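Posting for a labmate who doesn't have an account.
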Amino acid sequence: MKIVLAAPVSVSDCAGLLDDSDAQRALAQPGNYGAAPTRLALALHDAGHDVSVVTHRRGHGNLELAGSRFRYIQVPSRSSARSQAVDGWRHERRLMVSAITELAPEIVHSHWTYEWALAGISSGLPHVTTARDAPTTILRHHRDAYRALRWLMAAQFRMRARSTSLATPSPYLAERWRTEMRWTRDITVLPNIAPGAPTAHVATANHPTLVEVADAGPRKNIRGLLQAFADVRRTTPDAELRLVGPGLGEGDGLARSAREAGLANGVTFVGPLEPSDVQTELMQAWAHVHAALEESFGNTLVEAMAMGTPVIAGEAAGAAPWVLGDAGLVCDVSNPAKLASAMVSLLEDSSRRNELHALGLKEIDERFSAHALALAHQEFYERAIG
């Protein structure tokens, strides 16, 4: 099948699909961009499909790369977010539509219900979209002009998507879309693909170590996690909490406020890392504690499960309980005392950690593997074309 993915994709992660000279150019590009569509592109190519990516990246110029059954087309993108938002990314959308129609695929699969989805619809070709967030929920938590304009683009997509099949990565997000955007047609649930094959390992940290991969935003609940971890240290004095992600570095404001509040004992503020280094952090930890109050999917959950790292997450944190299935420990993460109790119980119970280790690998193999989800996407495309 000839497929175009209209989505942000890390072409550096796709270098192995390109001809030698283009592979070197791809490796020079910045990574850590569009993890879910990137993994889908690789899985579809491995399944034998002809895959092209059409995208833009703010402030980056034209880039076209090719390999056997794989093409990457990045159209020129303006550097001003304000200019893009004011006209709804019209310039970038027009260039993406031109690239998509020239490729003439059997199906266009857009990701996020913004400029990529509007470009896919405007191509006039058979089209499906994966909604990766709930625009009204985002606007409620981030009341600014940029998110308001994004919401208007999603509403425009909603009005124009009469013949578009819609997917979401979780039942939770599907329900949010039905409710917030008044979507009455079917929504197919297609989870994100786990990174690589399940890899059994033994945690290498020589003392009780917890890792969180998030950012400093309020919905990630890092302040609540720090309060909970202070209680953990009273029970387990040698425990360590490692915080990985933007805004979680040693010199960031959250670290400074934690030190001022006496909540930094045993906490290592790691900050942002490359994806391979994030995987190393997860492999070393005794458990991944994910304190987010809400997730539309939760990529770090499947990344931890794929390594057999036990996970703690919120029992009411959107899609998190569904993603974990039986392979994680859930609690009320909004309550520091209950979160602390969950962390202590898991750190002290090696048999429970071993059980979650095995269950995590099983869930990945059965629900989130590249092979299974490439097949599921192919069936989704065939229904849309039909």
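Reply:
Got it, the structure tokens are right above this. The longest helix spans residues 350-367.
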